[in-house]
Design brief:
The chain is α+β, with helices and mostly antiparallel strands. 40% of the residues lie in helices and 23% in strands. The chain has 5 helices and 8 strands. Strand 1 and strand 2 form a beta hairpin.
Length: 154
């Protein structure tokens, strides 16, 4: 490690030696304090970057890399969901790794579908269409499941 010389106030140097003795290593103290200050500043930079990241519009639905596993699919946060039932269309969204429907959250797709269908048993794969944040159109869930399984549309 190379070194540089710094100007240090004489009166402060004298006070340190008076308090801690003539063998006190002022250089070690200054390096330690400067290192601590830089580490705290680095932490603040990381915290600031993290804060800016999680308060950005990209994080309105949670971590953009997170989402809901609906095997074999993985629906990222921000994915829009659509389901028709009883001549009505219902919409939900993947937010914070769950299905967000109004004020309610569902940890699984089938729970949301059951809620929309008034508790009746449904096959969510045949009822749900989804649109990922990077897509322009809704996709039929069962068709996308087949693509994931076989590599081709059914």
């Amino acid at each position: 490690m190379s070194h540089i010389a710094l100007l240090f106030p004489t009166d402060l140097y004298a006070r340190l030696l008076t308090r801690f003795g003539p063998d006190f290593d002022v250089t070690k103290l200054v390096v330690s304090l400067a290192s601590k200050h830089v580490a705290e500043a680095d932490t603040l930079v990381v915290e600031k970057e993290t804060f800016e990241k999680v308060t950005s519009p990209l994080f309105d639905d949670g971590d953009p890399n997170g989402g809901l596993a609906w095997s074999p699919l993985f629906l990222v946060n921000g994915t829009q969901l659509r389901m028709s039932y009883g001549q009505r269309t219902y919409h939900a969204r993947i937010r914070f790794d769950q299905v967000q429907y109004g004020e309610e959250q569902f940890p699984t797709m089938s729970q949301w579908v059951r809620k929309v269908a008034n508790g009746t048993s449904r096959n969510a794969w045949h009822d749900v269409w989804f649109k990922t944040p990077d897509s322009d159109a809704f996709q039929y869930a069962d068709a996308m499941r087949q693509v994931k399984r076989t590599g081709a549309f059914a």
